[in-house]
Amino acid sequence: MSTDGRGEAVRLINAARRRGRQALAEHEAKQLLAAYGLPVTRETLATSPGEAAAAAAALGYPVALKASSAEIPHKSEAGLVRLGLADEAAVLAAYGALAAALAGRPGGVLVQEMLAPGRELNLGLVRDPTFGPCVMFGLGGIFTEALGDAVFRRAPLEQAEALGMMEEIRGRRLLDAGRGQPSADRRALAAMLVGLGRIGLVHDAIAAVDVNPVILVGARPVVADAFIALT
């Protein structure tokens, strides 16, 4: 994918602004990240049971369903994620429950490919009042807050700097081969960090990016969830 996603990002940001929103929903955030070359899950936003069933069939079972709304940044904590749905009946039941929970809120139900369990990482972008846009790399998933194992670099990043960040976290050995897992594709991860830095430099309207988790599917990193806050 192109790493020059300025046009797509501006379109998504302006559309959110016109609706008076201060954030992008998950599917919008992933579209923006993909425009800058970050690998994201295959997914479809559904607004009816029929669309959800068709999307699941196209993706192939099992699938995950999530409420996708800019007003709900923490879907798991709100109980708005359904994983490992193995057939159409399960998808329709999950869609009904999530659509009911979204009643009155803008958004839809995201039908997403179900990634195999893997090592989880956390990438992000924050705006420091002194240093400006800074890129973050650390452990993800349930370890994010428990361990606080993350490092930061001021944007822009070169690949060498991004690779160096991976060697500074305490849990860096999780990126190595072991227990049947291959070594993480560090070059792909570095490209993701460089892309996040570019996003921060190009788009002042973006206040923060939370990419958590990034799941290692074997060696390959894939963005499984993302949230983008606007200024």
In short:
The protein has 231 residues and is α+β, with helices and mostly antiparallel strands. It has helices spanning 6-18, 26-35, 49-59, 88-101, 143-147, 159-166, 186-202; strands at residues 23-24, 43-46, 63-68, 81-85, 108-113, 120-128, 132-139, 150-154, 206-217, 220-223, 227-230.
What would your notes on this structure say?
This protein has 231 residues and is α+β, with helices and mostly antiparallel strands. Helix content is 34%, strand content 28%. The chain has 7 helices and 11 strands. Helix 6 crosses helix 7 (186-202). The strands form 2 sheets. Strands 1, 6, 7, 8, 9, 10 and 11 form a 7-stranded antiparallel β-sheet that branches. Strands 2-5-3-4 form a 4-stranded antiparallel β-sheet, with helices on one face. The model has no long low-confidence stretch (mean pLDDT 93). A hairpin with a 3-residue loop joins strand 6 (120-128) and strand 7.
Mean pLDDT: 93
Which structural class matches the secondary elements? alpha+beta
Care to count the β-strands? Answer: 11
Regions with little confidence, pLDDT below 50 for 5+ residues: none
- Fraction in beta strands: 25-35%
Broad shape: globular
Task: Jot down its keywords.
four-stranded antiparallel sheet, 28% strand, globular, 34% helix
Give the SSE layout:
Blueprint: H1 6-18, E1 23-24, H2 26-35, E2 43-46, H3 49-59, E3 63-68, E4 81-85, H4 88-101, E5 108-113, E6 120-128, E7 132-139, H5 143-147, E8 150-154, H6 159-166, H7 186-202, E9 206-217, E10 220-223, E11 227-230
Antiparallel strand pairs: 1-11, 2-5, 3-4, 3-5, 6-7, 6-9, 7-8, 9-10, 9-11
Helix pairs in contact: 1-2, 3-4, 6-7
